């Protein structure tokens, strides 16, 4: 009996690749796990964390934000290791399966050990597991396409992002309620179970996926070739400007959760948990992705041709506005008021619009601008922009914390600081983007002649 072989190149076809449903299922379940854990992490650290003796020992707000952003920074730094492992040694599929299991172990640790030591071990395992699989899963989407069905790639990356946010919106609404009703073991245990489901879904798609052969250590040679270095340098400059966007964006799970604690959370006939407001982002993504794709982008294109770099620039200009709204909310709180949490929903509309313009566009742009053997590695370098942005936020929160746990940038001043950072970034980005020399690299199809 002949042994079944994996596909090693996309077949010449104008249809949707057969592996896409498994990729989308995996991504939806994995993102449920990640965002479900993440949305309650700051609240867990400030309300449920235990000391070594098992007694309650919560963190201060500034310290919890510092821990949170260093964790997110680590999640988006380890993709570099994932790219090296997958491209040089293991290949994408084995890397995803092995480190998905490490990821599961971290989530189950968080479910059963609520001390600071347990938290540190769990977050380290989650950062390693989720970070290492990240560039592999993202590059694996693009690897399913050849030149004939290249036109479907943008649509699938939008679906990919849609599946991320479908998982996120469900978990952001469900997990905070599980924490309030059943405690941390159940609240972290459900995401752990969903991560196991994600692992199984990816394994089931193994015969439908295109498995681009690993490049071996020739991949390292290509990275440091003239073409590889030029691609990395060009994209790296763009990523430096994208990093401040992530410094603002990822605070929806830290600073905004803490801000929501101070607001009137009875809205739309429902009493919201402070961590549940995070669900506004993935919910809006589900609505705004089609709106941007089919209404906003075509309308703008009729008067102003939209390139990927122009989309990113518009997103950067918009990105400071949600924190300006946050500053105005803080002014209302300082005046003795208790504003409605509906004001934060308005801030989320602005933040999510900026995310679509910056993040989705940069994701596809990164793939197309990466040389063929460097797809995972370039995705990992893109994720470094998220790591850099979160490191900046963590350092800011460490520096501004007073010995008594209060902040040197209290109230609205904290948000205005980040607004100023974003405005300066957007202005400096414009001349750089205007001079960017774009060059696309798409995978060859099985029927293609080898390049000379």
Tell me what the structure shows.
- With 452 residues, the chain is mostly helical.
- The chain has a single domain, classed as Growth Hormone, Chain: A, CATH 1.20.1250.20.
- It is built from 17 helices and two strands.
- The chain has helices at 20-39, 41-47, 61-75, 79-90, 92-112, 116-143, 153-182, 184-204, 218-223, 226-249, 255-260, 280-303, 308-319, 321-334, 342-369, 375-399, 412-434, and strands at 266-267, 270-271.
- A two-stranded antiparallel sheet has the order 1-2.
- A hairpin with a 2-residue loop joins strand 1 and strand 2.
- It is globular, with a radius of gyration of 22 Å.
- The two termini are 37 Å apart.
Q: Would you spell out the secondary-structure blueprint of this structure?
A:
Layout lengths: L19 H20 L1 H7 L13 H15 L3 H12 L1 H21 L3 H28 L9 H30 L1 H21 L13 H6 L2 H24 L5 H6 L5 E2 L2 E2 L8 H24 L4 H12 L1 H14 L7 H28 L5 H25 L12 H23 L18
Antiparallel strand pairs: 1-2
Helix content: 55-70%
User: Strand percentage, roughly?
Assistant: under 5%
Report the count of strand segments.
Answer: 2
| CATH class bucket | Mainly Alpha
In short:
It contains 17 helices and two strands. It has about 450 residues and is mainly α. The longest helix is centred in the middle third of the chain and has 30 residues, at about 155-180.
């Amino acid at each position: 009996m002949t042994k079944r072989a994996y596909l090693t190149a996309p077949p010449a076809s104008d249809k949707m690749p057969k592996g896409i449903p498994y990729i989308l299922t995996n991504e939806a379940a994995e993102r449920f796990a990640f965002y479900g854990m993440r949305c309650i992490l700051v609240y867990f650290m400030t309300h449920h964390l235990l000391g070594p003796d098992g007694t309650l020992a919560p963190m201060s707000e500034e310290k919890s934000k510092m821990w949170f952003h260093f964790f997110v920074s680590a999640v988006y730094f380890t993709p570099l290791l994932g790219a090296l492992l997958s491209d040089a040694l293991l290949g994408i599929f084995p890397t995803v399966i092995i480190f998905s299991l490490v990821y599961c172990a971290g989530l189950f640790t968080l479910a059963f050990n609520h001390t600071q030591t347990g938290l540190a071990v769990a977050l380290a395992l989650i950062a390693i597991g989720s970070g290492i699989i990240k560039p592999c899963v993202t590059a694996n989407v693009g690897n399913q396409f050849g030149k004939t069905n290249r036109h479907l790639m943008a649509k699938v990356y939008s679906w990919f992002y849609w599946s991320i946010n479908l998982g996120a919106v469900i978990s952001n609404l469900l997990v905070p309620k599980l924490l309030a009703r059943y405690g941390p073991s159940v609240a972290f245990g459900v995401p752990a179970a969903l991560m196991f489901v994600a692992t199984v879904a990816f394994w089931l798609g193994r015969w439908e996926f295109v498995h681009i052969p690993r490049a071996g250590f020739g991949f390292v040679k290509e990275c440091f070739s003239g073409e590889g270095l030029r691609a990395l340098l060009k994209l790296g400059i763009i990523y430096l400007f994208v990093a401040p966007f992530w410094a603002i964006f990822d605070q929806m799970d830290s600073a905004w959760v803490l801000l929501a604690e101070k607001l009137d959370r009875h809205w739309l006939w429902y009493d919201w948990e402070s961590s549940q407001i995070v669900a506004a982002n993935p919910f809006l993504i589900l609505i705004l992705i089609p709106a941007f794709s089919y209404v906003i982008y075509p309308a703008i294109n009729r008067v102003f041709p939209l390139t990927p770099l122009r989309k990113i620039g518009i997103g950067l200009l918009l990105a400071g506005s949600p924190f300006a709204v946050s500053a105005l909310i803080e002014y209302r709180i300082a005046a003795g008021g208790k504003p409605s949490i509906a004001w934060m929903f308005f801030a989320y509309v602005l933040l999510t619009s900026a995310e679509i313009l910056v993040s989705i566009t940069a994701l596809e742009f990164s793939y197309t601008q990466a040389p063929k053997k460097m797809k995972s590695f370039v995705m990992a370098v893109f994720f470094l922009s998220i790591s850099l942005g979160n490191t900046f936020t963590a350092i800011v929160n460490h520096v501004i914390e007073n010995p008594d746990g209060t902040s040197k940038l209290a109230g609205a001043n904290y948000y205005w600081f980040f607004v100023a950072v974003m405005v300066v970034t957007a202005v400096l980005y414009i001349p750089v983007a205007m001079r960017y020399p774009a060059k696309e690299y798409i995978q060859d199809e099985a029927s293609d002649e080898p390049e000379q």
